[in-house]
């Protein structure tokens, strides 16, 4: 059914795009017998009734008969170009009016000229000349009374002229409306781009004034503590804080440059972390005082880079939440390699000293961004309190097909990368 609807819609679109050309051929087919009849039997004009009234030698009769068929063919050919060159059809209709008394073709010429030519002064001159010549032709060449001649001119020429003026005005109005709509759409896109640029600049300014300042202050205090502390554990912790803060500042500067769209700024090009970087991540949390038990079960198999990045971010987000809401509590990280899927489970115990009185602020978007990241690869996420206390984060993601050597996998989770940080 959908295919049939699509085929019908395509046919309608093609027909609508070619409707003017179809109208040209239809009018040309209708004009040919009419002009041939007028040339053959119309008594008005020097060429009127040439084929029917020709006498003399056979060549003259044949030439008059050929003229009867060639003239309508030439005028019908001009009907096909009535939209691009309506002046030619107007001149031909004037010649037919004067030579054979054809009062119908001038109506088609006036309609075409009014609908497709914007020169109204030339149209007025043609209209007055053709209508005056038609009235004079009918009055002089036949017994038609002037009132009837005027009525014929009004029906066969004035009415087509009026319809042509309406069609031309409507077509110009629609074209102007289309142009205005396109211009407004372009202006709307420009305004949206300007608003996006202004918002990116504001975010970059706020990040620089708040986040960068606080992180820089943290790095300075950690450096001072590393120098002045006597306890080795305190010195090691301060060094870890200083190193982590400096890395965060470097990444933050790259992000700020991208947000401000500076010419010499580029997005951070460091490789995205994968499962091989989990040892470093867990080691940092252990050095920071968080007891982390890390286990890997099953038979490891090559995984797509996006799956490995998602698994890493899952562990990172779970450890961050455990450090915020359950500082000092034991954490267990388990990776289960199953046929066709990878399961990541992070359990944290309740803090030994109870919940922190002043927990660090959080945006609340970490788990939401993690769900979006997992949805991109067809995985699932379950997070909530455990029956015996503590918190559990469990993610199951399909293993998929690992990229072959030399094959680069597109980085689809760059948008979710920022959402998982909190």
* Mean model confidence by pLDDT: 78
Beta fraction of the residues? 5-15%
Oligomer: single chain
Number of helices: 13
Order of strands in the sheet with most strands: 1-2-3-5-4
Please give the number of β-strands: 5
> Over the alpha carbons, how many angstroms does the gyration radius reach?
43 Å
User: Main beta sheet, described?
Assistant: 5 strands, mixed
Residue share in helices? 55-70%
Query: Order of SSEs, N→C?
Result: HHHHHHHHHHEHEEHEEH
Structural class by SSE content? alpha+beta
Alpha-carbon distance between the two ends: 48 Å
- Shape, please? elongated
Note poorly predicted spans. 47-55, 405-422
Region (Disordered): 344-367, 380-422
Keywords: ATP-binding, Coiled coil, Kinase, Membrane, Nucleotide-binding, Phosphoprotein, Transferase, Transmembrane, Transmembrane helix, Two-component regulatory system
Coiled coil: 167-194
Pfam families: HATPase_c (PF02518), HisKA_3 (PF07730)
């Amino acid at each position: 059914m959908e295919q049939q609807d699509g085929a019908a819609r395509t046919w309608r679109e093609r027909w609508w795009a070619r409707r003017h050309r179809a109208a040209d051929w239809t009018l040309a087919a209708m004009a040919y017998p009419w002009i041939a009849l007028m040339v053959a039997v119309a008594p008005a004009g020097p060429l009127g009734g040439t084929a029917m009234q020709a006498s003399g030698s056979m060549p003259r009769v044949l030439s008059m008969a050929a003229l009867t068929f060639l003239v309508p063919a030439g005028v019908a050919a001009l009907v096909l170009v009535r939209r691009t060159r309506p002046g030619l059809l107007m001149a031909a209709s004037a010649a037919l009016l004067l030579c054979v008394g054809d009062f119908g073709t001038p109506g088609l010429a006036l309609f075409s000229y009014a609908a497709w030519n914007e020169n109204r002064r030339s149209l007025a001159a043609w209209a007055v000349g053709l209508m005056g010549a038609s009235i004079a032709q009918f009055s002089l060449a036949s017994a038609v009374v002037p009132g009837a001649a005027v009525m014929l001119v009004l029906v066969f020429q004035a009415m087509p002229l009026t319809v042509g003026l309406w069609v031309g005005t409507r077509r110009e109005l629609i074209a102007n409306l289309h142009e205005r709509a396109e211009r407004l759409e372009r202006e709307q896109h420009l305004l949206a781009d300007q608003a996006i640029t202004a918002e990116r600049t504001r975010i970059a300014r706020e990040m620089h004034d708040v986040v960068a300042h606080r992180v820089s202050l943290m790095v300075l205090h950690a450096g001072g503590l590393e120098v002045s502390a006597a306890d080795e554990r305190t010195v090691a912790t301060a060094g870890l804080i200083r190193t982590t803060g400096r890395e965060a500042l470097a990444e933050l500067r790259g992000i700020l440059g991208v947000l401000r769209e500076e010419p010499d700024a580029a997005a951070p090009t460091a490789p995205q972390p994968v499962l091989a970087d989990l040892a470093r991540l867990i080691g940092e949390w252990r050095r920071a005082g968080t007891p982390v038990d890390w286990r890997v079960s099953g038979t490891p198999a090559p995984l797509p880079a996006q799956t490995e990045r998602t698994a890493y971010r899952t562990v990172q987000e779970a450890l961050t939440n455990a450090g915020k809401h359950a500082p000092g509590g034991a954490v267990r990280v388990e990776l289960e390699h199953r046929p066709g899927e990878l399961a990541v489970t992070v359990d944290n115990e309740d803090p030994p000293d109870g919940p922190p009185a002043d927990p660090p602020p959080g945006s609340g978007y970490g788990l939401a961004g993690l769900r979006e990241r997992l949805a991109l690869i067809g995985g699932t996420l379950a997070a909530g309190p455990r029956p015996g206390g503590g918190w559990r984060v469990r993610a199951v993601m399909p293993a998929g097909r690992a990229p072959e050597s030399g094959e680069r996998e597109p980085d689809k989770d760059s948008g979710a990368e920022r959402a998982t940080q909190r």
